[in-house]
Amino acid sequence: MSVATTPRGYVERPRPSGLADVIDVILDKGLVIDAYVRVSLIGIEILTIDARIVIASVDTYLRFAEAVNRLDITEADHQPGLPELMEEVTSGGASSKTKGVIEGVKEKLTGDDDDDDDKDKDKSQSRSRRSSSSSRSGSRSRSRSGSGSKGSS
Amino acid sequence: MIYVYGVLRRGRSADVAAAGVEQAPIRGVEHGELVALVSDLDGTVLAAAREVRAHWAVLDEVARSVTVLPVRFGTVLEDDDAVRASLLEPNGERIAELLHVLEGRVQLNVRGHYDEDRLMADVVRTSPTVASMRERIKRLPEQAAYYQRIHLGEAVAGEVARRREDDTRLALKALEPHAVASQVEEPRGSDGAFALAFLVERGAVDAFGAAVARFREQAGDRIRIRFIGPLPPYSFTDGELAAGSPAWA
């Protein structure tokens, strides 16, 4: 389905997606309740690694420097800028190659059931799987005190 | 222990087929006009990758027909009484108010990601500073250029941050008119362009989708756009928001 070439009037259907989107949508969102029980979420740091990439960090600087340095200068010269891009609405293609290692890792984590269909036939699946997760996460313990709960303000 | 998913108004069907955290069945804890969707839990250790999906599946199913206010992932309370005493009772008014505002509306997320090669080429082309730093470093042996590379990267990061701001503004301009409210979130990853959440009337999802299609056309190959939803209003559970946007009134 090539979306880029669609004529005006086209309506795009939103869709739910793989684990990366689920995490993006859910983590750190939703109503926060005062004083709740501390739970340990094993493996949470693997899920959130993408979120912790800070643009203003030496790691990112070095990565950007490398990305800029490996550019072929002639290629750089011939890249169209924003205005030309607006006209040049092509069907694209090459854009998917930079998917990102992290996204790949995350999807692999749950590769078993990526279709989000709630056919959970395998209830027998043992729960012991949790212990195989890589590491013990710092528990997300937001036990706030007080009772007037006014969000995060 | 009780795992909590979300809150809805009493009287709405709270029958949920999806299995919850630890495969437990979903039930409701009622208090006044509100029902909290919960499931029983054995311990306080959860496998994040798996349970985040359970949390999602439960709320996703409910939200297809009813407006539900999501509770933050990983929220566990002592027992049913605690659900009433710590959640429904003290927050009852605020929750009822939010549910009223959110009624008949869904969340749609629009995420933009840059194609990194293209982004870098664009930065080099438009920033003389970056271009000249880059040329200088090319002539140095790798070891010697360590700090120069950090400086170069920092300059690039500044350019990227500027583009993020510009593109966030562009996206908001294109899409905000079709939404009731919007929320700017932190883009994920170093290639993230923008991360936006919109609150849209259920009946206006198609109109919003048309706006997304037009914006995608406008962005071309420069930004890869993901359009996700309809979702329960995960990003609109903060009461503060209500005051921020006049459209909420």
Describe the overall structure.
The complex is a heterodimer of chains A (153) and B (249). Helices cover 29% and strands 2% of the residues of chain A. Chain A is mainly α and 153 residues long. Chain B is α+β, with helices and mostly antiparallel strands and 249 residues long. In chain B, 45% of the residues lie in helices and 24% in strands. In chain B, a hairpin with a 2-residue loop joins strand 2 and strand 3 (34-40). In chain B, helix 3 (116-126) crosses helix 4 and helix 4 runs antiparallel to helix 5 (146-175). Chains A and B meet through helix 1, strand 1, helix 2, helix 3 and helix 4 of A and strand 1, strand 4, helix 1, strand 5 and strand 6 of B.
Record keyword descriptors for this entry.
A: 153 residues, mainly alpha, disordered C terminus, B: 249 residues, alpha+beta, 5-stranded antiparallel beta sheet, 10 strands, elongated
Describe how the helices and strands are arranged.
The complex is a heterodimer of chains A (153) and B (249).
Chain A: H1 19-26, E1 40-42, H2 44-47, H3 58-69, H4 73-78, H5 82-87, H6 101-109
Chain B: E1 2-9, E2 27-31, E3 34-40, E4 45-47, H1 48-63, E5 69-70, E6 76-77, H2 80-102, E7 105-114, H3 116-126, H4 128-138, H5 146-175, E8 181-185, E9 192-201, H6 205-219, E10 223-231, H7 239-244
Antiparallel strand pairs in B: 1-3, 1-5, 1-6, 2-3, 7-9, 7-10, 8-9
Helix pairs in contact in B: 3-4, 4-5
Summarize the entry for a quick read.
With 153 residues, chain A is mostly helical. Chain A contains 6 helices and 1 strand, in the order αβααααα. By secondary structure, chain B is an alpha+beta fold.
Tally of alpha and pi helices of chain A: 6
Task: Calculate Rg of chain A over CA atoms.
Answer: 22 Å
Biggest interface in this structure? A-B, 98 and 101 residues
**What does the main sheet of chain A amount to?**
none
Beta-strand proportion of chain A = under 5%
Task: Let me know the average pLDDT of chain B.
Answer: 89
**Helix segment tally of chain B:** 7
How much of the residues of chain B is beta strand, in percent?
Answer: 15-25%
Give the low-confidence spans of chain A.
1-7, 78-153
Poorly predicted tracts of residues of chain B: 239-249
What is the H/E string of chain B?
A: EEEEHEEHEHHHEEHEH
Strand-pairing-aware structural class of chain A: mainly alpha
Order of helices and strands of chain A: HEHHHHH
What shape does the CA trace of chain A take?
flat
Largest sheet of chain B: 5 strands, antiparallel
Based on Cα principal axes, name the global outline of chain B. elongated
Provide the helix percentage of chain A.
Answer: 25-40%
Q: How many strand units of chain A?
A: 1
What's the rounded overall pLDDT mean of chain A? Answer: 56
